[in-house]
Amino acid sequence: MLSGCAPGGTAASSPTATDTSATGALAPTATPTATATAGSGAAAIAAPSVCDAVDLKPDATVAGADLAACVVAYSKAAGSGHEAFSSSDGSAGTADFIFGDSPAMSGTVTGPDGTTSFVLTSDAAWVTIDGAWVEGDVNSTDTRKMLAGTIGQAYRAAADPTVASSLISSAPSWTVQKDQDLVDLPDDSRVSAWRLQADAPFTMLGAEVQEMTVWLTSAHVPVGTRAAVSVGGIQTTTTQHYSGWGMPVTIATPQP
Length: 256
Fold this sequence. Notes:
Layout: E1 2-6, E2 9-12, E3 25-26, E4 61-63, H1 64-78, E5 80-87, E6 92-98, E7 104-111, E8 114-121, E9 125-129, E10 132-135, H2 143-159, H3 161-170, E11 173-184, E12 190-198, E13 202-204, E14 207-216, E15 222-231, E16 234-243, E17 251-252
Parallel strand pairs: 2-11
Antiparallel strand pairs: 1-2, 3-17, 4-11, 5-6, 5-16, 6-7, 7-8, 8-9, 9-10, 11-12, 12-14, 13-14, 14-15, 15-16
């Protein structure tokens, strides 16, 4: 959640990062060279031309499709990054991700029941259960595999940047707020960012989104999202902060 104050805005706090590892590597995507950074460890990435449709000035109205296209295009141009995420249900975690034709993600989530590690690829999920890696399969008759598959789906929804992009495009219009916020990133750096808010509640795949916020720097670097979503009458607010865009990432396939 956001706390503290900047001139006319707020400062976003981030959870503490947790390291994860496994054996057997997936190759990371290549990192391009360009001109914008967010975070002390971030590579320089130029904002794609589709971001020209996102006018970052006070009170500007931005179409959801244009905002989502900018976030997706920047993510693909960077190819990889790091995030910290937290939820109002008491869970929090960190993840490294590869964004592109072969997306992948690895990280940890800490909640009331302890800490779980996960590795997600485009077509598979591995989760630690009782300290051991289990490959998920929601259709399996093996209860551990079914549980791992269900947990993997939940973590993908919480941590995958593509899910945030789908949410963004589901809101028809967004408004750039009058002042920039100071946003604390997972790498302990702080950046100024424009706060864009969805103009009205919206729905996505049966979920009701009461509020959603996206933070972009003046160079169109995505540095955070926050969404209050209700499913089955239960509302959860999830906050994500991004850093290390374009930094090399290696995601390993666990060996049970």
